[in-house]
């Protein structure tokens, strides 16, 4: 079963000394069976929000609900994929891909699924190899197979392709977006990469930093698999880039004005003392 994700009124402080929150009043509905990308500058809180959806972090205020249930802890129903595939180096490809099922105690019943997934992600000839014998892209494919083996409702992707070469990255982007729609898995992708967002997402959410807020969004009404060479693709990418720059410039101006105000106050205090 697939799942809607509701993010309601989330505000988060990592510690009490913070003057402004890491996340401020985040409200977002992530539609089931679609891929939603979160983009924004480094430090705007994208990974923080993803960890909250995964149940790895509880917000100071507000809540995440998946299929109507408030997320309070991690679950096998929502898996996460990171930039580094975090595989066990002493195990084979098959053993690594099976891990989620082994932990769930269902590997015996679902053995075939691991074989099918490894075939699907192009590792049919590598199943008995030690994962250290694989390239970075192949290792990420093992992590993908492992994430899908437990048949999650939700897959959370934290810059999973950023360490890969351009060719492998592009191939995996296309495959994962296809898997999202073929299997009806709700996916949330954190990325810095505007092309990746347009290549993969049904919806792109733009976040701003200091404090982390949602400041824009865009639908990507292109069919899958997406052809990056089309005029429409280029236009959407340019539009998103322009939106991103506009928001960023406004933020820089706001921060500069705050700094100037602080300087004026300090000067006034110095003159008064
Ligand atoms: N465990 C933590 N304790 C304290 N502060 C944290 C912690 N994790 C993240 N932060 C701070 O919260 C802010 C948001 O971090 P987060 O990693 O969510 O941003 P991000 O948008 O994912 O950044 P990047 O794109 O660089 O990965 C940053 O200022 C970061 O330093």
From TrEMBL:
Keyword Transport attributed: yes
This protein's record includes keyword Transmembrane: no
GO molecular function, a single term: ATP binding
CDD domains from the UniProt entry: ABC_NrtD_SsuB_transporters (cd03293)
Assigned keywords, A-Z: ATP-binding, Nucleotide-binding, Transport
Domain of life: Bacteria
Pfam families assigned to the protein according to its UniProt record, in alphabetical order: ABC_tran
Domain ABC transporter positions: 5-234
Membership in a protein family: Belongs to the ABC transporter superfamily.
Protein's UniProt name: ABC transporter ATP-binding protein
Species per Swiss-Prot/TrEMBL record: Thiomicrorhabdus heinhorstiae
